[in-house]
Amino acid sequence: MNKYKFFRDAKNVLLWLIGCICYSVAVTGFVIPNSIAQSGITGASVIFHNLFGWPVGLVGFILNLPLLIMMFLCLGRGSFLKTVSVAVILSVCLDLSSFIFANYVSTYSGDKILASLISGILEGFGLGIIMTTGATSGGTDIIGRLVHKRWPHITVGRTVMIADALIVIANMITMRNLESGLYAIIVSFLSTKVIDSMLYGMGNGKMIMIVTEKADEISKAIISASPRGVSVIPAVGAYTGENKNILLCVARKHEISGIIKIAKGIDHRTFIIVSEANEILGKGFSSSL
Question: How many domains does the chain have?
């Protein structure tokens, strides 16, 4: 068990290192040289870097310290050790990459849209790798969790979005450049998409629920005409009191229209609900996350 834990921890540290390097290269090699506003605690440290020339990594860790302490006191140990470890590694990587770009490798300072695209991909890939281990880089994520615990009706995502937006606006003010915030939107959007793809897979599908009185006919038709299976769930109409069935099926996005056509062709009165299914584990889809 100890041997397994050692290799698991070593693997996590390696993934954290790779993730932090990717994120650091994005920030110091593309974001800062092109005056693109950065969100999160890193964005706050970039403000101090632009105003006083202070190292981004060290300032970021100092800003993270009170949040980490509050996380430990209010949220317990949980993922505290992982978050602290990632925060330390990220701080070192940011300042080390800044030193390397300043002395050995040229930063990119060309097309800002291209810089935003590369930054978004690198940041998303780096954070995605870190998140696959169950860790985070701290910062506004901690703020979101703390606010949610105090006021449960406020979601973590909403708090993080507001905090990041305020930091981006502060960056725009210190840079005196409106465009820096517009480019930040590109970086944020693309990094979010990359993170979602890494955590939930790129083959996102749809879940379709079919409420019908002709469950046997529709389910057999779907199974024979498509590679998808169907689950039958007994149900009772609350208004009519009639016995019905709900057919539950998950499929790729391009298969949904065919399934709907089959159901409507057999029972034109059927009631159909189609929703997103970001994570599908099982035969015909992903076997693991």
Answer: 2
